[in-house]
Amino acid sequence: MDECWINLGGIKVRYLESGKGNNRHILFIHGLGSASDRWMKIPDTLSSDFHSVAIDLPGFGESDKPANMKYTIDQFRNFIILFLKEVSINDGQTRLIGHSLGGYIASEIAIQNQSQVNQLVLIDSSGMLNKSTPILEEYLNVAMNPTKDNVKKVFEKMVADPSRVPSQLVDGFIRRINMPNAKYAFKSTLANSTKIQIGLDRLRQIINIPTLILWGSHDKVIPLEHSKFFNDSIVNSRLEIIDDAGHAPFAEKPEQVCEILRDFLY
Question: How far apart are CA 95 and CA 264, in angstroms?
């Protein structure tokens, strides 16, 4: 994928792009403390049929991390809407694929900006937490004082098999979380995304958007029962549970997840 940069409202944002000639689009939105690279080869693989774009949200990855940003879900939503316009994928042919925090943001876009979304994929989505889970609290503590050992240990709790945590994932997280304002962005985002829920009534407003809900069977970050909130509330949705996978099933079972995505997306 090509590495690209864009300036939006004074914030320099990095994104990865492939399949630009295709007129059907996919926007990948990563989770807390993550970046566009975390999607690995999935966006590039799907780019044979789709224009694939994976963004580094403000505050994360290689994008700017403004000290004056509040990092609320509404701010992220507004930013993504602006991004869609600026990269010309706001024609109603965009599929949103969001993981964890990214799923929360994608859900809000689907609720408030339905004409922008053709299909929706929510992977181990946040949005229905009323407080941090124990692993999220541990993740926060590690992010504030990262070492190779404690980052590796918390990442191992997020997967079904601890051997699936590569050293480059640990090193990349430590490098990025030590960038200026990165810890503030992480802490603010976590606080804002867990104190306000989407709400079941608002999820029910997602009516005309085909929705795929993917969840790792061994997710200890956002428990599997949260998948039912989304599946039961979103009328046109289907749930796929990925066995032997934790909070990021697309990273542990990329071939299986990619096959499911190909089957769902059109």
Answer: 11
- The label of the residue with tokens 């990329």 reads 254
Taking only the tens place, the pLDDT of each residue in 74-109 is: 999 999 999 999 999 989 889 999 999 999 999 999
213 CB neighbour count, 10 Å cutoff:
23
Mention every residue, 6+ apart, whose C-beta is less than 8 A from residue 10. Answer: none
CA distances from 104 to 10, 46, 144, 190, 214 (A): 24, 23, 23, 12, 14
Q: What are the residue ranges spanned by the domains of the chain? A: 2-264
- What is the DSSP-derived secondary structure letter of residue 66? -
CATH class of the structural domain 2-264? alpha beta
pTM over 0.90: yes
**Among residues 238, 226, 209, 244, which one has the least CA distance to residue 100?**
226
> pLDDT tens, 135-179?
999 999 999 999 999 999 999 999 999 999 999 999 999 999 999
Strand pairing category for 117-123 and 94-99 = parallel
